[in-house]
Amino acid sequence: MSTRKDKFSRKDKKYMSLALSLASARHGLTGENPSVGCVIVKNDEVISIGQTGYNGRPHAEYNAIKDSNVNLEGSTMYVTLEPCNHHGETPPCTKEIIKNKISKIIYSVEDVDEKVKGKSLKILKSKNIIVKKSLLYKEIIDFYKPYFFNRKNKMPYVTGKIAISENNLIFSKGSKRITDIHSDKLTHFLRYKNDSLMISYKTLNQDNPKLNCRLEGLNQFSPKRIILDNNLETNINSYIFKTANKNNTIIFYNNANKQKISLFKKKDIQLIKSNLIKKRYFDLKLVLKKLYKTGTRNILVEGGDDLSTSFLKNKLFNEFFLFKSPKSLPKVIYKEFNCFNHLSHKYKRKKKINTQLGKDSITLYKR
C-alpha cells in the first residue's frame, strides 16, 4: 500500500505541479464538485491534460482521456484528487482509466466523499494498475481545504473582504474610492473565484453596487448576488434589482407584506424566508446552511461594518482580506470599521500581500 513516504522524482513533482495549476485555474467555477487537475504522461512527454468542467462536469480525468489523440496504453496519470468510481452524468473515471490501459496512477489527496474514499485505490489495484498517492500532499491538501470544509460542515467556505482608510473609516461622504486600482483588481479576482457574493440591503441602498467581476474576459464568471434584507427594503431602482433574475439573485427576508413579496417574485428573484435572532439579526449559520443546499460552495462577504462584525463574532469567516489605504478620509458623515478586536483575537494573520504597483496594505487572515 502506498504511503506518504513514497519517493517521487523531480519529474513527478513537475507533472503534479502542472495538475495543481490546472485545478487552481478552475477553483470556484466547478459548482458542487471539487476542481481537479489531471496530466497524462507517456515516454516522458505530456500527451494530454484535463480540468474539471465548468459547473462540475465532466471530470478532469475524463476530459484528459477524451482529449488525447494517442494510445494511452502504458501511460501515467497524475491527478490532484482520488479518481471517482461511481456513475454520474459521465462514466466512472476508474472505468475510463482501466478501459484505456493506463498503467500507473499517481494522485495526491484521498477524496472525503464516502462514495469514493479509498475505494478507487482498491479498484485500480485489482486491475494491476500501479497506484501511488500523496505527491505534493501539503500544497494540494491546502488547496482542497474549502472542499473538505464544504463536505464536513455542509456550509459554504466563507471569505470576508473590507476596505478601510488610514484612519479606519469604511465610508465618508464625498469619498467613494478608498483603495487603489490594484486592490480593486484583487477584489474582482476574489469575485471571480467565488460562486456567490453577500451584502446587506443597507450596503446595496447606500452604494448601489454592481457586485460583478469586471476583469477583462472574466465577466461571465460574476458571482451570484446574495442580499440580506429582513423587510424587503431593497431599492427597486438599484442596479441589483433591475438586473435580477432567478439564476443570479437570492434575497433572504423574514417579514414583508404580500405586495412586496409579489413585486420581488415578478423579477424571478429567489426569496428565502429565514429566522432572526432576538428579532433583529439573521441567524447567519442557518443562512449559510440554506445557501449550501442551493449549491453555494464559496462565498465572498463584502458587507459593511455590521455584517462583517456579525460574521467575525460568530467565527464564520474562513479567511478575511483587510485592505488598508494610506490615505485618510474626512470625518464628515462617516462610518468606522470597528471589527479589529474580533479580527485580531479570533483569526491568525497569515501574510501581507504586496500589490507591487499599489500603495495599499492587504493582509490575509485565516482561521
Topology:
Layout: H1 10-25, E1 37-42, E2 45-51, H2 60-67, E3 76-81, H3 93-99, E4 104-109, H4 119-126, E5 130-133, H5 137-143, H6 145-153, E6 157-164, E7 169-172, H7 181-193, E8 196-200, H8 201-207, E9 224-228, H9 239-242, E10 249-253, H10 258-266, E11 270-273, E12 276-277, E13 281-282, H11 284-293, E14 298-301, H12 305-313, E15 319-324, E16 334-336, H13 340-346, E17 348-353, E18 361-366
Parallel strand pairs: 3-4, 4-5, 6-14, 6-15, 8-9, 8-14, 9-10, 10-11
Antiparallel strand pairs: 1-2, 1-3, 7-16, 12-13, 15-18, 17-18
In short:
The protein has 367 residues and is an alpha/beta fold. The protein contains 13 helices and 18 strands. The chain has helices at 10-25, 60-67, 93-99, 119-126, 137-143, 145-153, 181-193, 201-207, 239-242, 258-266, 284-293, 305-313, 340-346; strands spanning 37-42, 45-51, 76-81, 104-109, 130-133, 157-164, 169-172, 196-200, 224-228, 249-253, 270-273, 276-277, 281-282, 298-301, 319-324, 334-336, 348-353, 361-366.
Characterization of the model:
Helix 3 links the parallel strand 3 (76-81) and strand 4. The chain has helices at residues 10-25, 60-67, 93-99, 119-126, 137-143, 145-153, 181-193, 201-207, 239-242, 258-266, 284-293, 305-313, 340-346; strands at residues 37-42, 45-51, 76-81, 104-109, 130-133, 157-164, 169-172, 196-200, 224-228, 249-253, 270-273, 276-277, 281-282, 298-301, 319-324, 334-336, 348-353, 361-366. With 367 residues, the protein is an alpha/beta fold. The strands form 4 sheets. It has a 9-stranded mixed sheet with strand order 11-10-9-8-14-6-15-18-17, with helices on both faces. It has a 5-stranded mixed sheet with strand order 2-1-3-4-5, with helices on both faces. It has a two-stranded antiparallel sheet with strand order 7-16. The two termini are 34 Å apart. The longest helix is centred in the N-terminal third of the chain and has 16 residues, at 10-25. The protein is elongated, with a radius of gyration of 23 Å. The mean pLDDT is 91. The chain contains 13 helices and 18 strands. Helices cover 31% and strands 24% of the residues.
